[in-house]
Design brief:
The protein has 525 residues and is an alpha/beta fold. It has helices spanning 3-8, 22-44, 56-67, 80-87, 101-106, 122-131, 149-160, 174-180, 193-203, 221-250, 255-265, 273-283, 305-316, 321-334, 336-343, 358-391, 397-403, 414-424, 435-458, 463-475, 482-493, and strands at residues 49-52, 72-75, 96-97, 113-116, 140-143, 165-172, 183-188, 206-207, 210-211, 217-218, 497-499, 502-507. It is globular and about 80 Å long.
């Protein structure tokens, strides 16, 4: 009989006899509890990682980790959810639960790894405050939510002073991605990466056998890259909607017809998750047999990451125009009731119907979508490059394209070409200067312009098609009319200007003859 069993029934483990001495028996019982606690501590520290948050993403990520052989300890602020999860979705797995943060931490192997999938903002800070007293130097906290990168930078710095390694990781792919392989974009304390690498690269999506996850960079780099990913996602979705709008209103196509077109598009250059699901959505029927998409209210929601991308672009002076327009398009859609009233009073062209060759115009729309998509991604990577300069991040742009190649919402064949471009020239200033993308835009340019011009003529709004073309034309222009802007600024505010023959030297002109020679300070706002 083992020592624990002997102690539990008051048997002397050395003699095997029942102990009748009360003091000796008491000593045996105390010894039993000490050994049980000691052994129980070993047994309890079974989990490879703890995960806080049992909403859809959290549950699916836990199940994914379990499938790949990692033991997860699940916790939720509403502890009843833990019990329900263990009794249902996690039944028959190695997943363990906890009813308090203290219990969860006690079940984690060292260094302890705790991942949060909770609402961004105060909820993250609250859990961090509760976790820190329970953790030791070198333990790791991972935020897998859509936190603002500025918050992640602040938390990294604060927790570094307390000896805790902090990671802010983008997680993309939605419910299905979390369950079967998301795209993961971790950044923060570099010392944490060796301790989470096998878990993250084990559970993530794979593209051509390569994991769609790698270390992004210091402090807020992971969440910044995820933010730009989401901004590009906004742009991709709006571009597809503009194609849908043109086919529907200009060509009078049915949802089934449009679904077939997008299914064909998904076999070529536009092969992507968002084109695929758009084709599926368009052919989906409601219980009455009618297309469900046409019954959905045309007012788009948003959670803020696209807006954050646009704000960041404005802060750092990068012309990420397409993502900005996609955010404003959602804002305009939200004015649904105003638009309904305005439609009764404000008139456009007499007809919104296209009178030319239907198949040729469908091809024009496809090429406009492809060219605009190239511009959108080029702008996104321009923003990443500028942020890397500002925060001194060493970003692997080809690696980021690979992380987005599978698992995430913007996954597409297209991203493989972006990786190839950066592999060829890691220092390329803009993707549209790469030979492949340069040639692709050249090939699409005529039909792209025809699509935008036709949309304007018919009164069908295409804000992202149009702004992408305007950016392209602006970027390829050796001279823009900003010289007049500078003259205007100097005229009314003495803001100075530079001459072409002497850049870097700012001068002021007394344009009116009575303005004086004093000029304003030159600075960038």
């Amino acid at each position: 009989m083992c020592h624990v069993c002997c102690f539990s029934i008051g048997v002397d483990p050395d003699t095997g006899k029942n102990c009748t001495d009360k003091v000796h028996r008491y000593i045996l019982v105390v010894a039993h509890h000490q050994i049980f606690r000691s052994r129980n501590n070993v047994i309890m520290a079974v989990a490879d990682i703890g995960l806080i948050g049992l909403a859809v993403m959290g549950q699916n990520l836990i199940l994914n980790m379990n499938d790949h052989g990692f033991v997860v300890c699940a916790f939720n602020r509403t502890v009843e959810k833990v019990d329900r999860f263990l009794a249902n979705e996690a039944k028959g797995t190695k997943i363990v639960g906890a009813h308090s943060l203290k219990e969860m931490v006690s079940k984690l192997k060292k260094p302890r790894r705790v991942m949060m999938l909770v609402k961004a903002g105060q909820a993250v800070d609250s859990f961090i405050d509760q976790l820190v007293p329970l953790l030791d130097n070198g333990d790791i906290i991972i935020d897998g939510g859509n936190s603002e990168y500025t918050d992640t930078r602040r938390r990294c710095l604060t927790l570094k002073d307390k000896g805790i390694l902090y990671v802010g990781s983008g997680v993309s792919g939605g419910e299905d991605g979390a369950r079967y392989g998301p795209s993961l974009m971790p950044g923060g304390a570099p010392e944490a990466w060796p301790h989470i690498k096998n878990i993250f690269q084990g559970i993530c999506a794979k593209a051509d056998g390569e994991p769609c996850c790698d270390w992004v960079g210091e402090d807020g780099a992971g969440h910044y890259v995820k933010m730009v990913h989401n901004g590009i996602e906004y742009g991709d979705m709006q571009l597809i909607c503009e194609a849908y709008h043109l086919m529907k209103d200009a060509l009078g196509m049915s949802p089934d017809e449009m679904s077939k077109v997008m299914t064909e598009w998904n076999k070529g250059e536009l092969d992507s998750f968002l084109i695929e699901i758009s084709a599926n959505i368009l052919k989906f029927k409601d219980t009455d047999g009618q297309p469900l998409v046409e019954k959905i209210r045309d007012a788009a929601g948003q959670k803020g990451t696209g807006k954050w991308t646009a704000i960041s672009a404005l802060d750092y002076g990068v012309p990420v125009t397409l993502i900005g327009e996609s955010v404003f398009a959602r804002c305009l859609s939200a004015l649904q009731q105003e638009r309904v009233e305005a439609s009764k009073q404000l008139k456009g062209p007499a007809s919104t119907k296209y009178s030319g060759n239907k198949q040729e115009f469908i091809e024009s729309i496809r090429q406009a979508l492809y060219a605009s998509k190239i511009v959108s991604y080029a702008q996104g990577f321009m923003l990443l490059r500028e942020a890397a300069k500002i925060f001194n991040w060493t970003l692997n742009y080809g690696g980021i394209a690979l992380m987005w190649r599978g698992g995430c919402i913007i996954r597409s064949v297209f991203l493989g070409k972006i990786k190839e471009a950066f592999d060829k020239n890691p220092h390329i200033t803009n993707l549209i200067l790469d030979d492949f993308f340069h040639q692709a835009i050249d090939n699409c340019q005529e039909k792209w312009r025809h699509t935008v011009a036709t949309a304007v003529t018919l009164g069908i709004p295409t804000p992202c098609f149009s702004t992408a073309l305007a950016f392209y034309d602006g970027y390829r222009s050796a001279r823009l009319p900003a010289n007049l802007i500078q003259a205007q600024r100097d005229y009314f505010g003495a803001h100075t200007y530079e001459l072409l023959e002497n850049p870097g030297k700012f001068i002021h002109t007394d344009w009116t003859g009575h303005g004086g020679t004093v000029s304003s300070t030159t600075y960038q706002a």
